[in-house]
Amino acid sequence: MATYVWTGGAAAPIPVVDPEVLARQAIEQMTLSPVSMGTTPPTLGTDPQSLGLVGMYTYLWVADLGPTTWGPVTETASAGAVTVSATATVDNVVWDMGDGRTVTCTTTGTPWTSGRGRAPSPDCGHVYTQTSSQQPDQAYTVTATTNWSVEWAGGGQSGTISFPLTATDQLRIGDSQVIVTRGDG
């Protein structure tokens, strides 16, 4: 007959997996990036000679629309028996126009075309009321902050992770003077 003696040794600890850590790993796999700014007038990074005018509508839009700049994009991450699925989408883009005003857009914006003329953007735009001549580099620094929301679930838990991604460029805004001359005869 065999005799068994308990020595008090413990089994190897089972590692605890934090599902939120896996959600963050899934987010890293998404390779999300800030938007490329579509504006009219074009940003100086796109066209260094660009010049907009005071009082004219500045259209704002996402120039590189795709899953990594607007979503949705879904990824999973696993460790042991736990798998987490995460889906990222954009809540909005907040455009800091450099003149003390911000514009919040919940859409990707509408690109300007010549057929739109001087009409305002139907969903995302701004009107400058002063030139950028007194600004550093004589241009307004414009920042587009894309606010992402990631819904995740797995391992018996779920949650939301929110974070911003930011792009920056410049817009030069001038004014147009009309000179009226009267001829004598």
Write down the Rg.
26 Å
**Rounded average pLDDT:** 91
Order of helices and strands: HEEEEEEEEEE
DSSP summary: helix tally? 1
* Bulk shape: elongated
Compute the separation of the termini in Å: 132 Å
Number of DSSP-assigned strands: 10
In what range is the share of β-strand residues? 35-45%
Overall helicity: under 10%
Secondary-structure-based class equals mainly beta
Q: Give the low-pLDDT segments.
A: none
Biggest sheet architecture:
5 strands, antiparallel
What is the secondary structure topology, with strand pairs?
Blueprint: H1 19-30, E1 37-40, E2 52-53, E3 57-62, E4 73-79, E5 82-96, E6 102-105, E7 125-127, E8 140-154, E9 157-171, E10 173-174
Parallel strand pairs: 2-10
Antiparallel strand pairs: 1-3, 3-7, 4-5, 5-6, 5-8, 8-9
Explain what the structure shows.
By secondary structure, the chain is mainly beta. 6% of the residues lie in helices and 39% in strands. The longest helix has 12 residues. The radius of gyration is 26 Å and the shape is elongated. The N and C termini lie far apart (132 Å).
